[in-house]
Amino acid sequence: MGLTVKISQKALPWIQTTILLVFVAVSLVFYAIFFVGAGGKLPPFTSTPYSVVFQSPINKNLVNQSTVTLNGVTVGHVIDLEVVDGVAQVRVGFDTDPQVAPLHQGVHASIKTKTLINETYVDVKDGNGPPLPDQTVLPKEAVSPPVDTDEVVRALPQSDRQ
Questions:
Q1: Three-state SS for 82?
Q2: What's 96's DSSP letter?
Q3: Do 15 and 7 form a contact (C-beta atoms < 8 A)?
Q4: Looking at the chain, which runs of residues are DSSP E strands?
Q5: Which of 28, 65, 75, 115 could form an S-S bond across to 70 if both were Cys, CB 3.0 to 4.6 Å?
Q6: Could you give the CA distance from residue 98 to residue 107 in angstroms, rounded to a whole number?
Q7: What do you get for the CA distance between the two ends of the chain, in Å?
Q8: Closest by Cα among 92, 100, 96 to 143
């Protein structure tokens, strides 16, 4: 004794359309979640984080979404990286946690390597001066360029390289 439901021919297009619209809406929600998770911006749903900009020589492996740490704790990501005349303009964004932002005058940024394949991240040490406004450009002396593994090996005497 199975239960049979009769659907009128007039209601069938409305049911099919409703199912299609629900499927499309759910798909768009999942797409938006993954898009924002990958660093995309949806203006009504994502806010622009506090950020600073610094210059560094071209970095082989620093990319958008690279990790940014403050005193060893992950607090943000690289938002934008643009190379102008052989110098990388790096914009890093910080979480909206009030303990993280804003940074203060005397801040120092270092580009460091966290794996043997030279995966890089930005390590920031906050300063003690007055707060820096959003999108401040840090002076060149406030940034330590990365040290490549090859540079370390080349710095060793020839006898120690073997």
A1: strand
A2: S
A3: yes
A4: 50-57, 67-70, 73-84, 87-94, 108-113, 120-125, 136-137, 143-144
A5: 75
A6: 16
A7: 82
A8: 92
Residue type, 14: W
Q: What is the distance between the alpha carbons of residues 124 and 107, in angstroms, rounded to a whole number?
A: 7
Burial-class residue 158 by CB neighbours within 10 Å (0-12, 13-18, 19+): exposed
Q: Which residue has the tokens 């499309």?
A: 24
Q: Which two tokens stand for residue 17?
A: 């359309």
- 0.90 surpassed by pTM: no
Tens digit of pLDDT per residue, the chain (162 long)? Answer: 678 888 788 888 899 999 999 999 999 999 988 887 776 777 776 667 788 888 887 666 778 888 888 888 888 888 888 887 878 888 888 876 667 778 888 888 888 888 777 788 888 888 888 888 888 888 888 888 777 767 777 777 777 666
